[in-house]
């Protein structure tokens, strides 16, 4: 039988954004996901690992982690952490009239983690945001201004990456958002192109430019990633997973998964179980 993953929701209907100090007693967690909001985590202290989907990341403060909706993550720390946690719903950024804020957010969340050269001003921006959001009357202009400054500062202090001004990335991010929101797991490029008010050819060109993949390969990568989450973190049968991902039968799903993941679903699940035990 299908066993759903632990889904946590620290947001509320009245608060589209929330900033709090990282809880120091939280060192280990079970694999879970947040399907209603994004999470940005800044650590100025701590040691151990943070797993996001199939990626296990060494904690090397100062650093930030970007966790998208539907991504599965968990902590395994052996030292007291210190930092901040920010959660916000997608509509908070998407409804902003400041295009620069949207571009910075898209750039920031295109990386699972970012190592920083220093953290003093990053800590100050998080602290200012936390204080502002506790005011009885919160100014959206102040919050957006602080967010833009924070996102820009993180990217400025990031090691090995630079902010991008590529406008095509906005359309690519919209495709990613559609893939996350689409629970029918549509695999047709033309359907996404229509929703984005563009052509399949243009969507294909943008995906090649940003990811060096075709639009079809980007869609397949998302579906395979979701399949891997279910295989690794649930006890659903392969047939149940195939049905959940909108495949007509399990054999079609197995062929699709093997073509894109170079391994069968059964073999992937077995290797995931072995890795967990180790």
Write a structural description.
The chain has 278 residues and is an alpha+beta fold. It has two domains: 6-157, Regulatory protein AraC (Jelly Rolls, Sandwich), CATH 2.60.120; 168-277, Homeodomain-like (Arc Repressor Mutant, subunit A), CATH 1.10.10.60. The chain is built from eleven helices and eight strands. It has helices at 90-94, 99-108, 120-132, 140-157, 168-181, 189-195, 200-211, 215-233, 238-244, 250-261, 265-277, and strands at residues 6-7, 17-21, 32-33, 38-52, 55-58, 63-67, 72-88, 113-115. Strands 1, 2, 3, 4, 5, 6, 7 and 8 form an eight-stranded mixed β-sheet that branches. Strand 4 (38-52) and strand 5 (55-58) form a beta hairpin. The longest helix is centred in the last third of the chain and has 19 residues, at 215-233. It is globular and about 55 Å long. Residues 173-271 form the HTH araC/xylS-type domain. It holds the Pfam family HTH_18. Keywords: DNA-binding, Transcription, Transcription regulation.
Key features of this structure:
Jelly Rolls; alpha+beta; disordered N terminus; Arc Repressor Mutant, subunit A; single chain; 278 residues; 8-stranded mixed sheet; 2 domains; 11 helices
Tally of individual helices: 11
Name of the level-1 CATH class of the largest domain: Mainly Beta
Number of structurally distinct domains: 2
CATH architecture designation of the largest domain: Sandwich
Mean pLDDT: 86
User: How much of the residues is beta strand, in percent?
Assistant: 15-25%
What gap, in angstroms, lies between the N and C termini?
Answer: 26 Å
CATH evolutionary superfamily of the largest domain: Regulatory protein AraC
- Overall, the morphology is globular
* Class of secondary structure makeup: alpha+beta
Low-confidence stretches: 1-5
Sheet bearing the most strands, described? 8 strands, mixed
Order of helices and strands: EEEEEEEHHEHHHHHHHHH
Radius of gyration: 19 Å
Helical percentage: 40-55%
What fold name goes in the CATH topology slot of the largest domain?
Jelly Rolls
Number of strands: 8
């Amino acid at each position: 039988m299908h066993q759903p993953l632990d889904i946590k929701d620290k947001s509320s209907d009245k608060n589209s954004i929330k900033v709090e100090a990282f809880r120091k007693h939280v060192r280990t967690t079970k694999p879970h996901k947040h399907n209603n909001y994004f999470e940005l985590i800044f650590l100025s202290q701590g040691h151990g690992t943070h797993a996001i989907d199939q990626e296990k990341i060494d904690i090397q403060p100062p650093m930030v982690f970007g966790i998208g909706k539907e991504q599965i993550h968990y902590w395994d720390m052996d030292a007291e952490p210190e930092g901040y946690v920010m959660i916000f719903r997608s509509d908070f950024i998407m409804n902003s009239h400041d295009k620069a804020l949207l571009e910075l957010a898209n750039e920031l969340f295109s990386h699972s983690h970012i190592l920083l050269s220093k953290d003093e001003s990053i800590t100050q921006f998080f602290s200012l945001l936390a204080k502002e959001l506790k005011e009885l009357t919160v100014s959206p202009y102040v919050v957006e201004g602080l967010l833009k400054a924070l996102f820009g500062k993180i990217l400025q202090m990031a090691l090995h990456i630079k902010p991008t001004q590529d406008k095509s990335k906005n359309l690519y991010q919209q495709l990613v958002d559609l893939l996350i929101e689409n629970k029918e797991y549509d695999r047709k490029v033309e359907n996404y192109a229509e929703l984005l008010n563009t052509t399949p050819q243009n969507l294909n060109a943008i995906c090649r430019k940003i990811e060096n993949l075709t639009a079809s390969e980007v869609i397949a990568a998302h579906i395979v990633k979701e399949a891997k989450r279910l295989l690794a973190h649930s006890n659903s049968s392969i047939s149940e997973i195939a049905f959940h991902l909108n495949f007509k039968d399990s054999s079609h799903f197995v062929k699709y998964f093997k073509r894109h993941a170079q391994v069968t679903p059964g073999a992937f699940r077995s290797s995931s179980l072995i890795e967990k035990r180790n």
